[in-house]
Design a protein that fits this description.
The protein is mainly alpha-helical. Among the domains are: about 50 residues; about 220 residues, Ribosomal Protein S8, Chain: A, domain 1 (2-Layer Sandwich), CATH 3.30.1370; about 70 residues, 2-Layer Sandwich (GMP Synthetase, Chain A, domain 3), CATH 3.30.300.20. The protein is built from 14 helices and eight strands. A hairpin with a 2-residue loop joins strand 4 and strand 5. Helix 2 packs across helix 8, helix 9 crosses helix 12 and helix 10 runs antiparallel to helix 11.
Length: about 525
Amino acid sequence: MNPILIGSLSALAGLLVGYGIRTLLGRWQADSIEKQAQAKLAGAEAEVKNLLREGEILARAEVVKAREAFEQSTTTRRKELQDFDDRLVLREENLERKIKVVEGKEAAADERHAALQDEAAALAQKRAEADRTLAEYQKRLQRLAGMTQEEARRELRQKVEDEVRGETGALLRRLQEEARETASAEARNLIALSVQRYAAPHASGSLTSSVSLPNDVIKGRIIGREGRNVRAIEAATGVTLLVDDTPETVVISGFDPIRREIARQALEVLVADGRIHPARIEEEVAKATANLEETMLQAGREAAYEARQQHVSTEMLRHLGRLKFRTSYSQNVLQHVIEVSHLMALFADQLGLDTQIARRVGLFHDIGKSADHQAEGGHARIGADILRRARENPVVVNAVEAHHEEVEAMSIYAVLCSAADAISSARPGARMEDVQTYVQRLDKIEALANSFDGVRSTFAIQAGREIRVIVDPEVVSDNEAMLMAREIARRIETELTYPGQIRVIVIREQRCIEYAR
């Protein structure tokens, strides 16, 4: 046979044998795995049955516990409901008792109301009878007294008014005497010490300034052709030039002292230079204006330095410098505010107050007088507005605004400022006025005092700072004299304008005269 064929058959027989053996092994393994699976399944079924049995036992136990808890809670709830029912029954019983009590009270109230109505009707009847009786008595009383009810009421009112006026005058006099006893000595010491420690010279101005001329030729140049130079100066400065009144002198007249000063400086330069014409006038007026602004700023710095004040803005320094050219009753306002600043410091030092605030109030108290005519209102309010814009201390602002009692004072500095202002203005020599104004003021003071009933004569003395009123003792009593003095002082404050203060003295003298024959 062919060896190749034999080999092929042998290989095929080997493959078949191997496949058969592998098939037998696979069947054996499958049977083994199936048996293991059946064993595990049987074990799992047994375990599941055990778990189901245990779960059933636990569920039965939980049901038993839940039933017991439900029964217990039901029992407790039943008990609570029973207690609530018992309380509700008790409340109903109490409410029924209260209702019965209220019904009883309502019945008693109705009976009381009816009784009160009966009493009110009886009282109304008695009141009507009393009114009729009173009217009859009044008619009888009027017939017996010989006057009507209105006349009797008027007489009684007058009597009560006289008694009240007498008591008021006595009370006023007693209070003033007590005030003098407690305050007069301390006030005198304080004012005397302040005035003694500070005294400043006073500069006085007027409404005119004058410029001396070397000769009449210069006067002719100032006048110019048909007066054109005079008109140019007046138009540039806003003042009036009086050329022909005084020889070798030009008088500058105007209400604004700053404009007068500008005109004076410009005119002096023009006179010294000799070249006078409208263009030159405008140039020198512009230079004088600039120089005056610098002068006012320097004057403000010097005033602040003298008043020992720091941190003053440039604008406030300019306002202070303007006061150098302002006057009040011929008293220079800048010197006045510096003096008030020093007096305020003395007052504050004696009273234990802040001297820096006091000095600042005194320095700025008349700052409103630096404003021109376009600012409306009193200088105290204008000054307060200026200080507010400068973000000044509110205490200083209020003291400045209240130093003439136009607003309510919020601190003692306003009161001290009023006192220092009065002292500075009323000191002898501080202020001057012309004779005509002085005489008119005295006449007005005496005429005002003579307008009161019972006044015999009046005398204004001490340059109008004191008025003595002599009254008829048979017409005016002591208490009425006290009231008259206060009323005269109030009318002087409201109707007259005067520097400082005026002392009012009412004199009542009773003289008993008899003759022995």
